[in-house]
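Sequence dictates fold. Next comes a concrete instance:
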Amino acid sequence: MKRKSLEGSTCSVARTLDIIGDWWTLLIVRDALNGLTRFGEFQKSLGIAKNMLTQRLKQLVEQGILAVRPATDGSAWNEYVLTEKGRALQMVLVALSQWGGEYLFDSKEKCNILVDNKHHQPLRKLTLQAQDGRTITPDEVVLERSTVPAE
């Protein structure tokens, strides 16, 4: 069954999931954020079938999340590098990682945590913040239809 496209949705979550909504895509971005650039590196890290990896990398390039460049070592291979749009997904992956660490592991179970590379301390838990800087709860957030805010 062919998946329905959500690209015309008025919901930004739906449009985002239309592009990055399968687990392979987010795991590829995770690996790219961790420095992987080569097809073989992604394939080895993920254990994903080559045809599926080819398809996901193609989609990420088409969406402007990854860019293809010649290998930095001068070999005939290409490398996949994150664009600014792709690097911006780090916040999404941090939120998913923090949520998973909090709710999907037993207290004695080891899991990977994100740390800053200067002091090797865990990242502060992401919070919801109002425009004025106040920390707010999920109960204090409502969904309104509007135009995309100017940056």
Observations:
- The longest helix spans residues 90-103.
- The radius of gyration is 18 Å.
